[in-house]
């Protein structure tokens, strides 16, 4: 598998508190995406969870990044948390307008489900069946969803289980042609990751890569710029 199939990056990029920790002094905010995209192969956009930008705005993002750079969009909370996957036709079309404005720069869509929500596998299955055939990753925030039945839904729909560390003991299971990892904060100072933690994650990701799966990993510990530092450290461990 080529390094093009490994995408290690951060959740978001447009942070004022990254000034002088990552972005050089004097860099205009409008230049942040281009600067970021010179150093990482992808970015996870969390803002689409809260509100959807205009398609022309999203098309403008694509023009600021090099060929091969990918955006992963977080699905809207209207569909995931308010509708709770009911009536997909109410949430998917508007989101699709935004996602499709990225063209080939769309790397996938992250569907995060609410905490404290009992499993409804048939509703997840119906939603994914109705959804466009994008590369989907599904993040569960309630451990009751982590059952064989739910994992079977993901496998049937070729949707990746989003492995993450916000739930203790979350299983590391591949359910699709890619693995998808989100890291929300480590045991190091200020939420950074220790060498031992990164070595452990790198070992798992390398095994999945060597098994032929694409690797996507995003650091969400943006405080104090830890995400960009830790993403670079994990990249180095995987030969990126």
TrEMBL record:
Name this protein carries in UniProt: DUF72 domain-containing protein
Taxonomic lineage from the root: unclassified sequences, metagenomes, ecological metagenomes
Species in which this protein is naturally found: wastewater metagenome
Pfam families listed in its UniProt record: DUF72 (PF01904)
């Amino acid at each position: 598998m080529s390094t093009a199939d490994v995408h290690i990056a951060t959740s978001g990029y447009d942070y004022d508190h990254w000034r002088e920790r990552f972005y050089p002094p004097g860099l205009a905010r409008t230049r942040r995406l281009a600067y970021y995209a010179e150093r990482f192969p992808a970015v996870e956009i969390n803002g689409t969870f809260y509100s959807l930008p205009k398609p022309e705005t999203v098309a403008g993002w694509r023009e600021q990044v090099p060929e091969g750079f990918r955006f992963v969009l977080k699905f809207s909370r209207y569909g995931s948390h308010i509708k709770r996957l009911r009536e997909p036709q109410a949430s998917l079309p508007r989101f699709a307008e935004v996602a499709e404005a990225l063209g080939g720069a769309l790397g996938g869509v992250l569907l995060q489900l609410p905490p404290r929500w009992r499993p409804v596998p048939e509703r997840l299955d119906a939603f994914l069946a109705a959804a466009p055939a994008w590369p989907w990753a599904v993040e569960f925030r309630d451990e009751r969803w982590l059952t064989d039945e739910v994992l079977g839904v993901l496998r049937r729909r070729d949707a990746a289980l989003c492995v993450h560390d916000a739930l203790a003991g979350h299983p590391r299971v591949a359910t699709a042609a890619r693995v998808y990892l989100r890291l929300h904060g480590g045991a190091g100072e200020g939420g950074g990751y220790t060498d031992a933690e990164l070595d452990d994650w790198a070992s798992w990701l390398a095994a999945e890569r060597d098994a032929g799966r694409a690797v996507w990993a995003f650091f969400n510990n943006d405080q104090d710029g830890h995400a960009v530092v830790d993403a670079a450290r994990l990249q180095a461990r995987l030969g990126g």
